[in-house]
Design brief:
Elements lengths: L26 E2 L8 E4 L3 E8 L8 E3 L3 E5 L3 E7 L6 E5 L4 E4 L6 E6 L6 E8 L17 E6 L3 E8 L4 E4 L5 E8 L2 E7 L2 E7 L4 E4 L4 E5 L6 E8 L1
Parallel strand pairs: 1-4
Antiparallel strand pairs: 2-3, 3-10, 4-9, 5-8, 5-10, 6-7, 6-9, 11-12, 12-19, 13-18, 14-17, 14-19, 15-16, 15-18
Length: about 230
Amino acid sequence: MNDAMNPVQPSPAAAQPGHSPRSAAPIPVCQERHHPTVFENEYVRILDVQLRPGGMTDAHFHDVASVIVYLTQSTVRSQKCGESTHVDRATTPGVSRFAAYNREPLAHVVSNPGSTHFRVFDIELVRPRPSGGFESVARPTGADFQWEEALVRSSSLRLEANDRIAIPANPCAHLLVGIRGTVTLACDASGVIAQRILRPGGFEFLPVDSGFALINHDHEPAEAVLLELR
């Protein structure tokens, strides 16, 4: 089980006069201090990005195709290295998007100009090519399809009180990200039923051919992001 982590505080150097991360050469994103790797296997590398209000990353670059899953209602600012302008983005928990950094690398500095803590999963897709297509894999019943790329398909799972969504075993690996509420994840691995708890800001990886179900025993709605990986 992988639960939400405590907010990461940026280094005091980020606020010291004369400290300008924009002036330094960009480093690989997985080496940037606000992008710690919290999970890695043959499919994904999960970077848990957190910035307090006023926080700022060092200059870094992305060059691996990635899925971005927002975990907080926040405002985040991106400024490309070598440019004087920036782009602000309002983020909503549970929204996911695909970033084709493998085709268009990005070197930038990220900051939090808002008044709330910012957290996002930057999920690098480390496989060089998919093991197959999605045309032979049915979309999960009860899932709200969002988008699809060669390596990944994204859906939202919304469970009302005492609701259940079952995902049958298929050729995909799966990554679940908890967004709202606490749900029970019941997995069928090699004939053994195992139960885990998925909380907001937590995640669970399930290998190929693992059937599972999400069950909301609570009286409030719950939500998760489902990534199917090829």
